[in-house]
């Protein structure tokens, strides 16, 4: 099972890069790297660079037939293009990363690599678990980072209060990524550990200088409880089938029920349970339209309702129809639409037919009646 991202009743899951692992097994890409957990690369010995979930470099020489679909990571990820171009998307916005460009993603930022496939490229990355899964949590850096307390707090603030995903970087960061790439070619964990730690320390120090000197705009609202609730509600339709309660929803956002409810009303103008019910109803409407083989009770359970009777009651209150009536009406309307479309197509063909077309058709039919063949 992939590692958890959001703590709560049922957490989101991190990507495990299975397409990359298959490509490695097939020999279609070269990859060097170290990992804790389920990422590609050599497994790090226990205690080696705790908090470093993954660090690696791939070298893709030919166009691939795979990509990394939308996913999350359980830490902050820095990715840099050494050579070539790589399509990269974050939270629905896409960018073609070129040589010398870097991305930064946080655990709550959904992202994708490839569009949909990976072109020839050399890409290097590392994922650092700083103990957060939500925007409103405080960051806890690994002990092997050699930063002073003020510097590490400043770096955390710059990364928490700014979610710009794409960067053109200066020579200092480019050189540090190049040194990290050289370090990853060594397969000895004892020799690699110190060098990787030094490289990442240098990289993060260069990043601190880069963000400070560029005057990156900061927004404290990005790491607020309200922002965490907004992200949770945005993704709730995809998880509405889970057995949510007011308590579990508030817990998933790290808030008390009263504060969670207040933010919910501010954002969607509904109480949490009202909004959850509306998400389930919308999901049920989709299931009833697209899955005719599912029974009503199967639809109810698939959308998070505990009984078909309760489902029928709230569905009728929301739509004016029972689930069965809604399904019949949908397929009746679909049938009428198909017939109307067919009549329109026939009518268009009739209107486009010229008198010479009609004379040719009649002549052909008469010839066939007399035993002849069409010319």
Model description:
The structure is a single chain. With 375 residues, the protein is of the alpha+beta class. It folds into three domains: 201 residues, Jelly Rolls, CATH 2.60.120; 93 residues, Orthogonal Bundle (Arc Repressor Mutant, subunit A), CATH 1.10.10; 42 residues. Strands 1, 2, 3, 4, 5, 6, 7, 8, 9 and 10 form a ten-stranded mixed beta sheet that branches. A hairpin with a 2-residue loop joins strand 5 and strand 6. The N terminus and C terminus are likely disordered.
Task: Describe the secondary structure blueprint for this structure.
Elements: H1 18-26, E1 30-35, E2 42-43, E3 52-60, E4 68-71, E5 76-90, E6 93-98, E7 101-105, E8 111-113, E9 121-128, H2 149-160, E10 166-168, H3 171-183, H4 189-213, H5 225-235, H6 246-252, H7 257-268, H8 272-290, H9 296-302, H10 308-319, H11 323-352, H12 355-369
Parallel strand pairs: 1-2
Antiparallel strand pairs: 1-3, 3-9, 4-8, 5-6, 5-7, 5-8, 5-9, 7-10
Helix pairs in contact: 2-4, 3-4, 5-7, 6-7, 8-11
């Amino acid at each position: 099972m992939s590692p958890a991202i959001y703590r709560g009743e049922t957490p989101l899951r991190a990507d495990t890069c299975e397409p990359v692992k298959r490509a490695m097994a097939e020999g279609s890409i070269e990859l060097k790297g170290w990992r804790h957990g389920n990422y590609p690369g050599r497994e790090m010995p226990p205690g080696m660079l705790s908090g470093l979930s993954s660090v690696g470099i791939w070298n893709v020489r030919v166009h691939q037939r795979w990509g990394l679909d939308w996913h999350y990571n359980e830490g902050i990820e820095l990715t840099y293009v050494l050579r070539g171009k790589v399509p990269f998307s974050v939270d629905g916005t896409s960018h073609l990363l070129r040589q010398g460009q870097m991305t930064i993603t946080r655990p709550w930022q959904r992202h994708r690599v490839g569009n949909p496939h990976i072109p020839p490229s050399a890409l290097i990355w590392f994922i650092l678990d700083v103990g957060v899964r939500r925007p409103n949590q405080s960051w806890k850096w690994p002990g092997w980072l050699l930063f002073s307390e003020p510097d590490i707090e400043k770096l955390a603030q710059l990364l928490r209060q700014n979610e710009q995903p794409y960067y053109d970087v200066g020579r200092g960061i480019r050189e540090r990524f190049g040194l990290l790439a050289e370090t990853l070619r060594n397969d000895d964990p004892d020799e690699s550990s110190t060098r990787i730690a030094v490289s990442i320390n240098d990289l993060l120090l260069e990043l601190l200088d880069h963000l400070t000197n560029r005057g990156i705009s900061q927004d404290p609202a990005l790491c607020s409880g309200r922002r965490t609730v907004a992200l949770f509600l945005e993704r709730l339709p995809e998880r509405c089938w889970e057995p949510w309660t007011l308590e579990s929803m508030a817990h998933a956002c790290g808030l008390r029920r009263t504060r969670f409810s207040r933010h919910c009303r501010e954002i969607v103008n509904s109480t949490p349970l009202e909004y959850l019910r509306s998400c389930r109803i919308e999901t049920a409407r989709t299931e009833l339209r697209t899955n005719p083989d599912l029974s009503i009770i199967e639809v109810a359970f698939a959308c998070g309702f505990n009984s078909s009777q309760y489902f029928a009651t709230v569905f009728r209150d929301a739509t004016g129809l029972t689930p069965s009536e809604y399904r019949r009406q949908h397929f009746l309307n679909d049938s009428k639409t198909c017939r109307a479309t067919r009549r329109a197509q026939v009518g268009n063909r009739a209107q486009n037919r010229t008198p010479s077309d009609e004379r040719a058709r009649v002549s052909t039919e008469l010839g066939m009646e007399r035993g002849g063949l069409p010319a």
